[in-house]
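S2.1 Query sequence (NADH:ubiquinone reductase (non-electrogenic))
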Amino acid sequence: MSFLRNILKPSILKSKTHFPFPSSSSTLYNSLFSASHHYSTSADAGNTKMYAGLEPTKPNEKPRVVVLGSGWAGCRLIKEIDTKIYDIVCVSPRNHMVFTPLLASTCVGTLEFRSVAEPIGRIQPAINREPGSYYFLANCTSVDTDDHVVHCQTVTDGAQSLDPWKFKISYDKLVVASGAEASTFGIHGVHEHAIFLREVHHAQEIRRKLLLNLMLSDIPGVSEEEKKRLLHCVVVGGGPTGVEFSGELSDFIMKDVRQRYSHVKDYIHVTLIEANEILSSFDDRLRHYAAKQLTKSGVRLVRGIVKDVQPDKIILSDGSEVPYGLLVWSTGVGPSPFVKKLELEKSPGGRIGVDDWLRIPSVQDMYAIGDCAGFLESTGKPVLPALAQVAERQGKYLAKFLNRIGKAGGGHANNALDVDMGKPFVYRHLGSMATIGRYKALVDLRQSKDAKGLSLKGFPSWFIWRSAYLTRVISWRNRFYVAINWLTTLLFGRDISRI
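Output structure tokens follow.
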């Protein structure tokens, strides 16, 4: 078994060089992993572990763009980059992009999980077929900006899997698009007891927990008090994600739970806790309409600040207690530990500071886009909101920027100093949308909170919301999945199987 583990462990990387294994396994290993001249390995003195990596590109080779992250910003850049000019290497702990506006719908069975996940290889086919382009299931642990090298560690599935494997990648251009993490504001117990709603596995856990509590509450001998707790779903955060999930959940309760769990239908409730106003970025008229519709759907709106989270209850700042069976945390995002660790100048709020062209001005050939990036104060521009449309447009802009540099001969490391930068990045807000359940939604097309503009509500907005997001889903494959899921839900109800 130890021989097999040694054979499998470095299988994410290929090499033409010699490996410090015993003679019999060395021959086999070299024959298995010799496909790419870019790879190299070096022995660790005193044991048989290796530290492998992608070597620097040569002048006669295509320059290499390394992208850290597979969110809206990173995947848009990967899609738009010219693969005739660059090789692409994507490093991310997930091998897909999540279509986050529809993620809440998967929690209650309106959509299936694969409908909102787009594999990176489909977004940019060159990663599957080009010899110098790769995707690595890993996290970046550090960046050596002087030597143009990123240090990475593979992502594993726990104690029963292979040990994490470290490797390094030389880059010509580095794009940090690693996103942000959910903000907990230092509140005790959030990480231990709440579920965030940012990834597919979060939605899977919410769905699993919700259906488990429904079935447990139906077991003979469970007290009424315990039934009320198990079936009390609490959402913290009144932004678009929290409101949309609350709306989807109330729809699920009214249309599916009341029919299929008739014994406990009167015990299940939804509470939405927000410190200020829900949907604070929307027009006042739309905000009040959303609050009214959510209340009519059975969602209890509570204005309060969470002070502590315990295994079965939330304690608010006024001392009141809110028992729960399912707790979903959706209070915005902040810088990730990786971003905090980078020794780079930061923008207000702790994001990586960038200039007007999304470059990190203190180092060469390094850029930042998406939720992890913000304009430096010296630019005179505000830090943009953590929205998918911001990240997507930054990715598209930077891809065009890098393509222009590459065509001008500045694609290799330290070779773009005299290339025309072109126009700086300018963001124009296209508006906001949010569904609130019961075939109703909000569409706010104002440029800013204080600007004038068109705002819609009700069924027409819901139709616009669904139409807009269906066209924004990246592939025709997933558009088909989403459309079919919506149709089957309409005709037959939601899938409530606990798998």
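Residues 1-37, 43-50 have pLDDT under 50 and may be disordered. The chain is about 30% helix and 20% strand.
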